[in-house]
Specification:
With about 600 residues, this protein is of the alpha+beta class. It contains 6 helices and 41 strands. It has a 7-stranded antiparallel beta sheet, with no helix packed on it. Strands 37-36-38-41-39-40 form a 6-stranded mixed beta sheet, sandwiched between helices. It has a 5-stranded mixed beta sheet with strand order 2-8-7-4-5. The longest helix is centred in the last third of the chain and has 28 residues. The radius of gyration is 31 Å and the shape is flat. About 5% of the residues have low confidence.
């Protein structure tokens, strides 16, 4: 009997230890989203990991667990707080975790009764500056089927607002919009806007948007000056960047909307600039206009410089074109001075300079180049001089010599330190895998005899500007920024995957095109070559591309990333692409010489 009790005790002890071992192995680690996060999306992606052999459910719905333990899913959110229950079962053991997120829902149609206006929807939400003849837009969401008007303080009254059809408002009823052309009756005044609404029950509501109307005047033009280097945009809200603009540039301000000043560039062309980047000058400051001289030439080891005298810094846009390779600089408020161009006795890639006066307020300067590849340019003002500097190409010797030997490379491991970047389902941090890729690529260039530098060699925090500053300090010709990708909060983590290369400046396109096929040849899903203005790809003084290995948010891609050879594979593919790019320049040079 004693022996039987001992055996039973041993059996239960082993069973307990075995189950405890299972319990210790069983876990749930949710890596996206974080608890108590707030989201505007209606459908939210989830990501995390558990035991690879466990059965997982999210809100009692079965979810696939991948062979590395990763899981992803998407759920619909209700307005307000949402509790998400994760449950993982292995053998007879179950562990659970609960996550809470807050959902701010998209606007939904208000009920007809009681009559009300959604105060958060009132527009303009910030002050608007307009010239006489410009149009003021007023908008709100209120109970459907009502009647709405708006009025301007000390000015026009009872301007009708139209209830827009749901086909124009993502299915939401009760969106009212009104528009009116402002006049100069209340110029130089800061005016309140009042909305009056009458519902189907006869009840009336009167409210004022937080944004007020300031009517400007042409009689006293407003001039501002940029405080720092910034950007011109094509719209008051959202939109896209038209180009960079340095500090101390004079601007003719003709309006404000959505936190951006509207700038008059020429008679028929306008742009927008962040209001906080502009210092307003005293009334009576002359409008930005200047005469521009023809250029003189200078050069140093790295740059050819075209130097033009100019009365004051003016806004500009600059673009690159091919066939022939050329830079087209458009100066706004500029007029052509006396034409006298003395080309230098020494060799330069500049084959021709031409000027076109397009109207009285726009001057176009075209610089044609004999080079097959542009390596960068800068445009800056210095002591009443406009200086267009064009990067000298590195010497690429004819084949079969090593085309990398005179090119300086800077490799940037994205994120780092306090900036984690993306996090995969199983907890891989992007900043760490990016650094592995960068170190592997560094070794490839070093072994090939190239001059190469890293922006960071450890887990340190660096701003985007600091990364570019390092590249400039090293006189880099090519800047390679290495990342791994991830999707937004509502995208499908199963569908979106693959490798990609990003560029912005036209002369970086060839490098992006050369790298991408080698990444796809690794067997990675093709996501694409993408034109987009990332901060590091916008730099004009260097050839710059951003490589995104694969999507950390996709479980299949993540398993590829977990392989020991992944970082080396991305490095080898990137290196091959760079080599192809430079070898193509070798061939172009040989053809040109032949």
């Amino acid at each position: 009997m004693k022996r039987r009790k001992e055996l039973l005790f041993l059996f239960f002890l082993l069973h307990f230890l075995g189950m405890n071992a299972f319990t210790q192995d069983l876990f749930i680690n949710v890596t996206y989203p974080a608890s108590n996060d707030t989201f505007y999306v209606d459908r939210l992606r989830l990501a995390g990991s558990t035991h690879p052999k466990a059965a997982l459910s999210i809100n009692k719905e079965t979810v696939v667990v991948f062979r590395n333990g990763a899981f992803v899913s998407r759920i619909d959110l209700e307005p307000g707080w949402n509790e998400i229950l994760f449950s993982s079962t292995l053998a007879d053991s179950t562990v659970q975790d609960t996550l809470r997120v807050f959902h701010i829902a998209r606007p939904e149609t208000l009920s007809q009764l009681p009559t009300r206006i959604d105060t958060a929807s009132l527009e303009p939400g910030s002050d608007v500056w307009l010239l006489p003849g410009d149009k003021l837009n007023v908008r709100m969401m209120a109970s459907p089927g009502g009647r709405a008007v708006f009025s301007i303080e000390d000015g026009m009254k009872n301007i009708p607002m139209t209830e827009l059809p749901p086909s124009r408002t993502n299915g939401v009823e009760g969106i009212y919009h009104g528009v009116v052309q402002v006049d100069d009756a209340n110029a130089n005044k800061n005016l309140a806007i009042t909305v009056e609404f009458k519902g189907v029950d006869g009840e009336k509501v009167k409210l004022q948007p937080s944004g007020r109307l300031y009517v400007m005047t042409d009689v006293l033009p407003l001039v501002g000056m940029t405080r720092e280097k910034t950007y011109l945009w094509n719209a008051g809200e959202g939109g896209t960047i038209l180009g960079g603009i340095p500090d101390s540039v004079y601007l003719h301000i003709v309006g404000r909307v959505g936190g951006r000043n509207k700038i008059k560039l020429s008679r028929n062309r306008f742009a927008y600039i962040n209001a906080m980047d502009v210092h307003l000058l005293p009334v009576g400051t002359p409008l930005p206009k200047a005469q521009v001289s023809t250029p003189s030439f200078s050069q140093n080891k790295e740059w050819y410089r075209l130097i033009m005298a100019i009365g004051q810094p003016l806004p500009f846009l600059i673009h690159q074109y091919d066939h022939p390779l050329r830079l087209e600089l458009t100066l706004f408020g500029a007029r052509q001075g006396y034409q006298w161009i003395t080309y230098p006795n020494h060799e330069t890639p500049i084959s021709n300079i031409s000027w076109t006066q397009e109207g009285s307020d726009m001057l176009k300067i075209i610089v044609e180049l004999e080079e097959k590849q542009l390596w960068g340019y800068t445009l800056e003002y210095d002591d009443h001089r406009l200086i267009l500097a064009i990067r000298k190409p590195p010497y690429i010797p004819p084949a079969p010599a090593n085309p990398l030997q005179n090119v300086v490379f800077v490799i940037d491991a994205g994120h780092g330190g306090e900036e984690l970047g993306a996090v995969s389902s199983t907890g891989i941090m992007e900043k760490e895998i990016n650094l592995k890729m960068a170190r592997a690529l560094y070794r490839k260039f070093e072994q090939a005899g190239a001059k190469v530098f890293l922006t960071r060699q450890a887990d340190t925090t660096l701003s985007l500007q600091a990364r570019l500053d390092i590249a400039r300090l090293k006189n880099a010709h090519i800047f390679l920024c290495l990342h791994n990708n991830s999707i937004g909060p509502s995208s499908d983590p199963i569908r979106v995957r693959g490798t990609s290369v990003y560029y912005y400046n036209h002369y970086s396109r060839g490098l992006a095109w050369a790298i991408y096929p080698h990444l796809v040849d690794l067997g990675l899903a093709p996501f694409g070559r993408v034109f987009t203005p990332f901060y590091v790809t916008r730099a004009t003084d260097i050839i710059s591309v951003l490589v995104e290995g694969i999507f950390m948010s996709n479980p299949e891609d993540e398993m590829i990333m977990q392989a020991d050879e992944y970082a080396d594979d991305i490095a080898i593919a990137t290196f091959k692409g760079v080599s192809d790019f430079l070898e193509s320049l070798q061939r172009k040079t040989d053809d040109q010489d032949g």
